Amino acid sequence: MIKNIFYSFILLISIQNFLFAHSVVLNIIDNEDGTMEVFGGFSTGQSAQGAKLIIKSELNSKILYENRIPNSGLLTMKIPKEPYKVILDSGPGHILEKSGNIEPKNGFNKSIKKEVKNIAYITTFSITSFFIILSIVLALKKQSYLRRV
Asked: 58, 81 in Cβ contact below 8 A?
């Protein structure tokens, strides 16, 4: 009886590992004819049939292309003329996003001009400057205090 309960418990624990034992796969291939091929699937080898594939502009987040993955798992489309990212949405917990690193033959029409603000650097610089100034002020006060005594 106890042996059966133990085996049932082990079986229940190991089943949940099999339920979540796959991840989303997204491959982007340049066909070198102005088109690209996108493969959506799972690490188990199944295609991501019915999953939503979205191509968004990195300039203004505008949707450039949207379609469902067919049975084959492959979609062929023109390479966007502006920087983009590819998003494969096959349900909750199965969303994968990749930057579009395939450029058209003549390059992108528009370039991304993002202001990079390194908050960590600014914060560290500000705090360090504050403590340096504070230590100089305290050292000068201590020096003037010692002269009076």
From this structure: no
Distance CA 149, CA 144 (A): 9
Beta bridge pairs of residue 65: 55
The tokens describing 111, both together, are 């370039």
CB 84 within 8 A of CB 58: yes
Query: Is 80 exceeded by the pLDDT of residue 71?
Result: yes
Tens digits of residue pLDDT in 83-130: 899 998 887 877 888 888 888 888 877 655 444 456 777 888 899 999
Here the tokens at position 71 are: 């049975």
Contact 88, 23 (CB under 8 A): no
- Tokens encoding 92: 């909750």
Side chain identity at 36, as an amino acid letter?
A: M
Q: Burial letters for 112-147: b for 16+ Cβ neighbours within 10 Å, e otherwise?
A: eeeeeeeeeeeeeeeeeeeeeeeeeeeeeeeeeeee
Please name the residue ranges forming H helices in 20-118: none
Question: Residue 36: beta bridge partners?
Answer: 30, 77
pTM as predicted: 0.59
Residue 121: HSE in the Cβ half-sphere, 13 Å Cα cutoff: 3
